[in-house]
Amino acid sequence: MPAITVRFLGLAALSAVILLNTQAMIHIGHFFSSPSLTQADVASTFHTAAEDKRQFIPKIIHQIYHNWQDPSNETLPADRDDVHHSCTTTNPDFAYRLWTTNSSRQFVETHYEWFLGTYDSYTCPAQRLNTLRYFLMRHYGGIYIDPNYSCSRDIQPLLYYPAWVMDSDHGISGARPHHPYWVMITESLAPRGHRFQSPNLPITHSGGPEFESAVWKKYHTQLPTKPRKEDRVYRIKMGHREEVFFKPNGRFRDTWDHSFGYIASTKALLGCLLLFAMFTLWVARSWQARKTHQREYQRLLPAKDQAGGYGTV
Predict the structure, then answer these.
(1) pLDDT of residue 273
(2) What are phi and psi of 60, to 5 degrees?
(3) What confidence score (pLDDT) does residue 133 get?
(4) DSSP state letter for 163
């Protein structure tokens, strides 16, 4: 194989690494590009605003628990039950809905039968968790809280924004029923219900961070310059310095699919491509050095030796 071909393969692989990494950052960048609120801002605004402020989100807390090993077992494990109680005790006037494997499918079949085929066809159970959350936000509204988080206090101040997401984790969100953002998300799910060879790509592409950021960009591109307040989607900061309403629970880090899940899911591919690029470039350089050495050696030989004969001594 000519050195120029090997060099081309190496450069192509290196370019693929750069493009994939850039694509991952662009997807996440779309999601983080809008103005944001801190949780402290939300809490202080609630206590200082006028009494006639409008509540958009109903007082419903949604949580999802699917027992993948035994779908018929709908009892929360003790550690997850602690998280559940942290939210119900700090918000006693909220309705609480726990969605299990069976009740989740029944909900989709009853209200969104057109999506049931896609829901059943998902090869990764985590895909059903993601998509179910979108449909719950669309249909009922309320606040969805992933079991990765416990409630630190009353979450009522979050009810006065028509729709919102957390900027560093898509495991907490809130919305009024039938908000157009969640309608767009659910209407965009079916075309992305593809099968992938990688076990991580289906989650991020068909209903995870990559998918959400793409819809986020599309939705805000289509919004008018001055949208109605009830159609806006707010971004609320989530981090160790922003823990006012929710606190991350380190015991549940087994769910890897967070906002940077798309980058994490491509690490293996990026690593393989980078190693391939380095190897092919090294082969091309070695090949070129060998050819150069051969040419220099040929120049030093007598003319008859270069033709295949015997030189004189």
Answers:
(1) 63
(2) -135, 130
(3) 94
(4) E
